[in-house]
Amino acid sequence: MAKKGKIENNKKRMRLAKQHAARRARLKAVARDQSLSMEDRFAAQLKLAEMPRNAAPSRVVNRCEVTGRPRAYYRKLKMSRVALRELGSQGQIPGLVKSSW
């Protein structure tokens, strides 16, 4: 089980990323627009840099919803391989059979 603080920080990052997504998209569009003047593009880049770091979607970490583990994460199932094996062994995942011989 991951530390509660790490899980909560990640939830905070998700919330911030969603909250600032529209503004980030607008500023990035202005910064990339070649038809605008260099000053306008630079100003947009500075405003983008002033935004909170945790508002960037790339800072959100995929974590297992069962254990909070950040590694060996299956996107489709939203859980780690360890949690998948545990739940599969208990028979709680339909269609999954853990092989044994």
UniProtKB/TrEMBL annotation:
> What keywords does the record list, in alphabetical order?
Ribonucleoprotein, Ribosomal protein, RNA-binding, rRNA-binding
Q: Which residues form a coiled coil?
A: none
A Pfam cross-reference name: Ribosomal_S14
Quick one: a GO cellular component term?
A: small ribosomal subunit
Source taxon at top rank: Bacteria
- Give the molecular function GO annotations: rRNA binding; structural constituent of ribosome
The keyword Zinc appears for this protein: no
PROSITE patterns, from UniProt?
Answer: RIBOSOMAL_S14 (PS00527)
Q: Biological process GO annotation list?
A: translation
InterPro entries xref list: Ribosomal_uS14, Ribosomal_uS14_bac/plastid, Ribosomal_uS14_CS
Q: Does the keyword Ribosomal protein apply?
A: yes
What quaternary arrangement does the UniProt entry report? Answer: Part of the 30S ribosomal subunit. Contacts proteins S3 and S10.
Q: Which family does it belong to?
A: Belongs to the universal ribosomal protein uS14 family.
Function of the molecule: Binds 16S rRNA, required for the assembly of 30S particles and may also be responsible for determining the conformation of the 16S rRNA at the A site.
Q: What is this protein called?
A: Small ribosomal subunit protein uS14
Q: Please tell me the species this chain comes from.
A: Amorphus orientalis
